[in-house]
Amino acid sequence: MNPESQEDILEDLASIQQNLNPSPNENIQQYGKLLVSELTSHDLQICFPARTAAACYLIACRLRGIPIRVTKIADASAATTAEIFNEM
User: Fold this and answer.
1) Nearest alpha carbon to residue 60 among 86, 34, 85
2) For position 32, which CATH number holds?
3) Residue-level pLDDT at 15
4) DSSP structure string for 11-72
5) pLDDT average, residue stretch 16-41
6) Residues 28, 60: contact at Cβ < 8 Å?
7) Those residues with Cβ within 8 angstroms of residue 28's Cβ, 6 or more apart along the chain or in another chain
8) How many domains does the chain have?
9) What is the DSSP letter of 79?
């Protein structure tokens, strides 16, 4: 993954967090960043940063036990519901 892709993913992740504005006690963006750093450690090709960011956000929510509909994440991002599921 090139640095620009990682930066784009992190920007999209921050945008999703801001748009959804979850409970102040749960910073899903931090958990999403951990997932992105894990992707970075592998040499993966990221074609659509917005999809990857939305998928990371959904995975982070699930790992933290925070109920959220994928449609809400899709509404807060540039990815569709199907694209988020496919990216996962």
Assistant:
1) 34
2) 1.10.472.10
3) 92
4) HHHHHHHHHH---TT--HHHHHHHHHHHHHHTT---S-HHHHHHHHHHHHHHHHT----HHH
5) 81
6) yes
7) 17, 22, 57, 60, 61, 64, 66
8) 1
9) S
Q: In the numeric block, which tokens belong to residue 4?
A: 């620009």
How far is the C-alpha of 44 from the C-alpha of 70, rounded, in Å?
24
Question: pLDDT (tens digit, 9 = 90+) per residue, 34-82?
Answer: 888 888 788 777 889 999 999 999 999 999 888 999 999 999 999 999 9
Whole-number pLDDT of residue 33: 87
Is-contact 53 32, C-beta < 8 A?
A: yes
Domain limits for position 10 = 3-87
